[in-house]
Amino acid sequence: MSKPVVTRFAPSPTGFLHIGGARTALFNWLYARGRGGKFLLRIEDTDRERSTPAATEAILKGLTWLGLDWDGDVVSQFERKERHAEVAHEMLARGTAYRCWSTPEEIADWKAAQEAQGISYAVFQSPWRDADPASFPADKPFAIRMKAPREGETVIGDQVQGQVVIKNETLDDMIVLRSDGTPTYMLAVVVDDHDMGVTLVIRGDDHLVNAARQQMVYTAMGWDVPQWAHIPLIHGPDGKKLSKRHGATGLEEYQALGYPAAGMRNYLTRLGWAHGDLEIFTSAEAMEVFDLKGIGKAPARLDFKKLENTCGHHIAMGDDAALLHELQAYLSAAGKAALSQAQADRLQKAMYCVKDRAKTFPELLDKAHFALISRPVQPDEKSAASLDTVSRSILTSLTPQLQNASWTKEALETILNQAASDNGIGFGKLAAPLRAALAGRSATPSVFDMMLVIGQDETIARLSEAAA
């Protein structure tokens, strides 16, 4: 019987949640959720100088916005330092690690001597590895080093990269416990993954070299090695490492720019992963088909046009009430004023005619401008030009007809088309002043949709003001 799947995301709280980290979390989440497994969250906060509570909060907030839920409590790596030290001492007892009293100066001198002989990439070989215990200094602090294999090869069976072979002569006797008693990252990550029951480690391929060194810890402790899946990094549109010059790199920036979370999940899932011609999908659909075989080996390129297109599909597909709720959260994240209750009610009523072509929440708000403004409507320069004497006269004549109309699209179409015919103009000529009166703009949803959304009284009031 196979073990239940357990994946994890383990960011360092030294800054914002990078979009690459968000995609790594998403891949872990999808893989676990699609197999009825667990997705765990660990904060690797052992770097006390750079780790901040604010960064931790930003990571949790970003994951929550993206819709990634985790199982159990968030684990702090720093709080487990005693457990890490305990394992280092157990390795000593097993003979798979040793005490080392070499000072930084002695290590530097050793490397300088190697370089003098033309050996520039030699790994440090401690004189304490096989030293006689009788020679051990008394009462001097020591580091604990792994006993790395000196010959042969270490093979990493990676689910994305394939078989990766590392020559053991390139692996040093890495320190697992410093002389001040603090554990190193290489030890802590293995102990935590083992204790948390992690069965699959999905992470960036910049950690691939670490896997060989971490595998040594598993072997030294007689623990099962998890499956590895090292995924390529995300590059900018120009193929270079993603940076600020390409645009937003932090996940929270994407929320503040107005991208919907469902669209972000869809886009990030497809960023470096494929399943046939599947492009637009829900998270539930992604969980059913997401696998490691679909992950490519080449770096993925961020494509903002594709991101916007994907997000546009999800806004169009979205539930109106859920979109309104997320849009309010976007306004808060972007530092903008919240919608009033009246505006929110009107926007929800307008969703059906504004969400189809909006790719982001700012675009959605722009298309819904007519529903969010209050009187008096201020026409922009282009639409104001359509409010000439003749069109104002037509608007005046429309008012009594609209007061007695049944407020349906069919009834409104009949009245407005008749008004255009009576005045010897096409409907397009009548629509321009109507748009100016109702929205103050020349590009809007259909005149009929705007009238239905804002209602009979508001429509008549706006037309009357424009005619005056």
From TrEMBL:
<comment type="similarity">
    <text>Belongs to the class-I aminoacyl-tRNA synthetase family. Glutamate--tRNA ligase type 1 subfamily.</text>
</comment>
<keyword id="KW-0067">ATP-binding</keyword>
<comment type="function">
    <text>Catalyzes the attachment of glutamate to tRNA(Glu) in a two-step reaction: glutamate is first activated by ATP to form Glu-AMP and then transferred to the acceptor end of tRNA(Glu).</text>
</comment>
<dbReference type="InterPro" id="IPR000924">
    <property type="entry name" value="Glu/Gln-tRNA-synth"/>
</dbReference>
<comment type="subunit">
    <text>Monomer.</text>
</comment>
<dbReference type="InterPro" id="IPR008925">
    <property type="entry name" value="aa_tRNA-synth_I_cd-bd_sf"/>
</dbReference>
<dbReference type="InterPro" id="IPR004527">
    <property type="entry name" value="Glu-tRNA-ligase_bac/mito"/>
</dbReference>
<protein>
    <recommendedName>
        <fullName>Glutamate--tRNA ligase</fullName>
        <ecNumber>6.1.1.17</ecNumber>
    </recommendedName>
</protein>
<keyword id="KW-0648">Protein biosynthesis</keyword>
<dbReference type="InterPro" id="IPR014729">
    <property type="entry name" value="Rossmann-like_a/b/a_fold"/>
</dbReference>
<dbReference type="InterPro" id="IPR020751">
    <property type="entry name" value="aa-tRNA-synth_I_codon-bd_sub2"/>
</dbReference>
<dbReference type="GO" id="GO:0004818">
    <property type="term" value="F:glutamate-tRNA ligase activity"/>
</dbReference>
<keyword id="KW-0436">Ligase</keyword>
<dbReference type="Pfam" id="PF00749">
    <property type="entry name" value="tRNA-synt_1c"/>
</dbReference>
<feature type="binding site">
    <location>
        <position position="244"/>
    </location>
    <ligand>
        <name>ATP</name>
    </ligand>
</feature>
<dbReference type="InterPro" id="IPR049940">
    <property type="entry name" value="GluQ/Sye"/>
</dbReference>
<feature type="domain" description="Aminoacyl-tRNA synthetase class I anticodon-binding">
    <location>
        <begin position="324"/>
        <end position="466"/>
    </location>
</feature>
<keyword id="KW-0963">Cytoplasm</keyword>
<dbReference type="InterPro" id="IPR001412">
    <property type="entry name" value="aa-tRNA-synth_I_CS"/>
</dbReference>
<dbReference type="InterPro" id="IPR020058">
    <property type="entry name" value="Glu/Gln-tRNA-synth_Ib_cat-dom"/>
</dbReference>
<dbReference type="InterPro" id="IPR045462">
    <property type="entry name" value="aa-tRNA-synth_I_cd-bd"/>
</dbReference>
<keyword id="KW-0547">Nucleotide-binding</keyword>
<dbReference type="InterPro" id="IPR033910">
    <property type="entry name" value="GluRS_core"/>
</dbReference>
<dbReference type="Pfam" id="PF19269">
    <property type="entry name" value="Anticodon_2"/>
</dbReference>
<feature type="domain" description="Glutamyl/glutaminyl-tRNA synthetase class Ib catalytic">
    <location>
        <begin position="5"/>
        <end position="308"/>
    </location>
</feature>
<keyword id="KW-0030">Aminoacyl-tRNA synthetase</keyword>
<feature type="short sequence motif" description="'KMSKS' region">
    <location>
        <begin position="241"/>
        <end position="245"/>
    </location>
</feature>
<feature type="short sequence motif" description="'HIGH' region">
    <location>
        <begin position="11"/>
        <end position="21"/>
    </location>
</feature>
